[in-house]
Each structure stands twice: as C-alpha cells, then as structure tokens.
Design a protein that fits this description.
Length: 151
C-alpha cells in the first residue's frame, strides 16, 4: 500500500487561496503518470492520508474531484483519510496496514517508523536525510524505486 502527496508541497499549497484557486493548482509534475502505475502495482491498495485543517480538507477534496483524480489514477474514491496532526498518520497507517509511505515531511516518517517498513521522503530536501528513509525527489524517482521493488 502506498500513500503520498499529489500537489507541490501539499501541506501549504492551498493556504490563503480561494476554493477556485485551489482546484486549479497544478499537480506535481509526473504525478498523473506515476500514480496510475502504482495503483496497478499495489492492486488498488493506494491511499491518500493528508494532515490538514477543515478548510484545506475541503479544498483537497474539491481538487481531487475537479482534476478527475480518481478516474485518472485508479485510486478508489473512498481511499482518502484526513488527520489534524502529522503524527496521527501513524494511526491510519496501522489501521490500513500501509507497507509503503511517500511523504514530504521527515516528521511523518519519524512517527511511522515502527509502523511502515518502506518509507520514501518525497521532494527536494535540504537537510541530512537519515538512512532509514529513501529520498525520492520527484515522481520519476518514486517510479524508479517502487515500480522496481516487490509489492
């Protein structure tokens, strides 16, 4: 199973924007090319687990609908969960038996370290990256690592 961000810096890209601006925000380059392949690879056991407040949650759901995310990627419509704190992602990962996690926050990976065996730190990172997480700077790197590895 896999979880990961779709938008560029998904945690903050909607901040201060109207709903109309949020839904027209572009996806991170490569997301709509790689996610469908991951959905096939992981037999539709792909989840979005997002930490956000109520306003960003509404914008995220609207973005997913507006961009036809579910039919373009094959991610099941009900496979979206939200939490208010990053560490709470570990609860969802445990409940869903997530085996692979893509997230752009090292704090999340620290919280799930004992829950999720395969962790991928997404996006450009400027700090030292610990050896217990795999750095995947973009969706092409995600594809190179996850589509080559056993599910």
């Amino acid at each position: 199973m896999i979880e990961g961000g779709v938008g560029a810096d998904a945690d903050t890209s909607f901040l201060g924007s109207s709903l109309e601006e949020a839904v027209t925000s572009p996806a991170t380059p490569g997301a709509f090319d790689v996610i469908p392949r991951l959905v096939v690879r992981f037999e539709r056991r792909v989840w979005i687990i997002s930490k956000c407040g109520a306003s960003t949650q509404r914008k995220t759901l609207a973005w997913l609908e507006h961009n036809d995310f579910y039919s373009r990627t094959g991610v099941p419509h009900g496979n979206v969960r939200f939490c208010r704190e990053r560490a709470e992602k570990a609860i969802h990962c445990r409940d869903l038996r997530i085996t692979h996690m893509i997230d752009d926050r090292l704090e999340v990976h620290q919280a799930i370290r004992d829950v999720v065996p395969h962790r991928y730190l997404f996006g450009p990172q400027h700090d030292d990256i610990p050896d217990w997480v795999v750095h995947t700077p973009d969706w092409a790197a995600v594809a190179a690592v996850l589509l080559a590895a056993p599910a």
